[in-house]
Amino acid sequence: MTQQALAQSCGVTRQTIIALEAGRYSPSLELAFRIARAFGVGVEEVFRWKSE
Amino acid sequence: MMTRRWEFAGLLIAAGLALWLLLLAGPDKVLGFDPGKAGMVLLVTVTWISLYRISRIPRSDLDAVVSPGEWKAWLGLGVSLVGVVYFVANVRVFGAGPAWTNPEASAVARNLVLLLIAWTVLSNVMGSRWKGVVQRDERDREIEVKASGWGRGALISGVIGFALMLGFSPADRLQWATHFMIANLLVLALMWGWLCEYAATVAMYWHDRR
C-alpha cells in the first residue's frame, strides 16, 4: 500500500503518514485504529510503545 | 531544469524589486510618481505568475513534498512578513494625521489592503488545487493550536511593549504619538502576532519533515 493510499483511506494527508513513519508524530487513538484497520491487523501489530 | 532555475531567479528578482518599490511608497516620490503603486502591481503580477507556474505542477508532485496546510503556512508567512516590513518602513507617515487628511498614509493603507486581497485570492486558488483531498487533518489542527499560542504571546508582548514605551516616555518625546499613530501601532502588534504564528507553524511543519 502506498503512503498516498494509506493517507486517503485514513482521512489524513500524505505528509502525516510520512511524519508517522519517521517517528516525528504520534497519532491519536482514533487515527491509530484507522491505520490498523487499513492494514487489516490489530493496533499493537502496527504501533509499539517504547518505554523509557 | 535550467529554464526552471532561470524562471525562479527571475521571479525572485522581480519580487525583490517590487518590495524595494513598495518601501518607497508614501513620502518618497520618484519624478512625482508614487513608486509604491508600481511596486504593489509588480508584486501582485509576480504572485499571479508564480501561482500559474504552481498550477502547472502535477498535484502528485506537489503532494509529495508539502501538505496543503504547510503551503498555506508558507504563503501566510511570506505575506505577513511583507506586510510587517512594509508597515514598519512606512510607520512615520501615520504621525501626520488620519488617512482622510493624509495622502501618504492613504497610499500605505491602500497597498496593505491590496496585499490582503492578493493573499485572499492566492489562498482560494491554492485551496482549489487540493479539492477532493484532505486539506487539514489532526496533525494540522495540533500544529495550529500550538502555533496560535506563539501568535498570542507575540501579540501580548507587542501590546505590552507599546504600552510600556508610551507609559514611561517623557511627554516631550511623545509628539509623534498621535491617536492615529497609536491606533496603527496596535494594528502593527496584531500583524506581528500573525507573523509569529505563521513562523511557528512553518517551523513545526519543517521539523516534521526533517
State the main characteristics.
heterodimer, A: 52 residues, mainly alpha, 4 helices, globular, B: 210 residues, 7 helices, 0% strand, flat
Describe this structure in words.
- The complex is a heterodimer of chains A (52) and B (210).
- Chain A has 52 residues and is mostly helical.
- Helix content of chain A is 60%, strand content 0%.
- Chain A has helices at 3-10, 14-21, 29-39, 43-46.
- The longest helix of chain A has 11 residues, at 29-39.
- In chain A, 25% of the residues are buried.
- The mean pLDDT of chain A is 90.
- Chain B has one domain (2-209).
- Chain B has helices at 2-23, 35-56, 59-65, 68-89, 103-129, 138-168, 179-209.
- Chain B is flat.
- The mean pLDDT of chain B is 83.
- Chain A binds chain B through residues 4, 7-8, 11-16, 18-19, 22, 24-25, 27-28, 31, and chain B through 60, 63-64, 66-70, 133-135, 137-140, 205, 207-210.
Topology:
The complex is a heterodimer of chains A (52) and B (210).
Chain A: H1 3-10, H2 14-21, H3 29-39, H4 43-46
Helix pairs in contact in A: 1-2
Chain B: H1 2-23, H2 35-56, H3 59-65, H4 68-89, H5 103-129, H6 138-168, H7 179-209
Helix pairs in contact in B: 1-2, 2-5, 4-5, 4-7, 6-7
Offer a concise description of the structure:
The complex is a heterodimer of chains A (52) and B (210). Chain A has 52 residues and is mainly alpha-helical.
Oligomer: heterodimer
Low-confidence stretches of chain B: none
Cα-to-Cα separation, first versus last residue of chain B = 25 Å
Largest sheet of chain A: none
Summing up helix and strand content along with how strands pair, one would put the structural category of chain A as: mainly alpha
* β-strand amount of chain B: under 5%
What fraction of the residues of chain A are assigned to beta strands by DSSP?
under 5%
Ranges of chain A where pLDDT stays below 50 over 5 or more residues in a row are none
How many beta-strand elements of chain A?
Answer: 0
**Helix/strand order of chain A:** HHHH
The number of helical elements of chain A comes to 4
* Number of structurally distinct domains of chain A: 1
**Alpha-carbon Rg of chain B, integer:** 19 Å
Residues in helices of chain B, as a percent range:
over 70%
How many domains is the backbone of chain B divided into? 1
Gap between N and C termini of chain A? 31 Å
Largest contact between protein chains?
A-B, 17 and 20 residues
Order of helices and strands of chain B: HHHHHHH
